[in-house]
What we know:
By secondary structure, the protein is an alpha/beta fold.
Amino acid sequence: MTLSQLGAFVFVARLGTVKAAARALGVSEPAVSQSLAQLRRHLGDPLLIRVGDRMVLTEGGRRLLGIASQMVALGAEAMAAVQPGPARLHVVMDGVLAEHVAGPLICLFNQRKAMDATSGVAATAELPLLLTSRLADVAIGAQVSAPGLVSRPVLRCLLIAVGAPHGRRDHWLVGPSGTDPASDSGRLLRLLRVPESHVRVFANQTAAWKAAAEGAGVAPATAHLVASQLRRGDLVAVETAATPLAAYWYATALEPESRSAAAGTFLGFLTTPAATQIMRTPDDGIPRNRFRPPVHVSIWS
């Protein structure tokens, strides 16, 4: 029985599908299925059975879940305790923030704090598990309410709808985060009762805004992230019954006594004027003379 097998079990149990578990863990679906099969054979119990389109715990699986969750978290702590080098930090965000804000924000943090921070994308439903399993230190995006976690707002923003001046208005164009019901885009579509048949999903939010500028439909947008397109006239604000919609970006982490020192440092950094400025105008980036990308060196024997 290995930590990877227990991790696969915990993530499938919490998220309900092998596909969701694989996405959250950053591995392939066959890898999750194989780990789960090995754990089942070792323990002599199916642990999870399929009911409809979801995986449901057996009685043995229910007894194992709490213990397995603790073991996965302790395994992540043990690895962090012995890894050499600068303090490490992993931040997960929704698709829009990961696409537009993560790069300059993480770069500035690494430069100022001399840390090795990385970022990844996660759906809102995955955030509590990633944080409590210590596979992520901080999450930025929608507010998360779960035992052991603290979620606080770091930026107030407005959600609007944008399109071409004379484009069509019967289709909604979203990036992957638009399929997350807890995201700002998902919340707007729900408020407007947009039928699924009228939603087109693009590979990323930039592609959705580009299609909207070409007249293919209307796209949800965080106002300050499309300010330059609005100034140029590439996009115009489209009136809807629900916009402009007030929204907040939240930072979520474990409770203070449980979170890592790196997580606490990053949360403090998010309250600084420099971090706020980056989140509000990520296109401005970091001045060239201050840009210091991380350098990673591998020595092979």
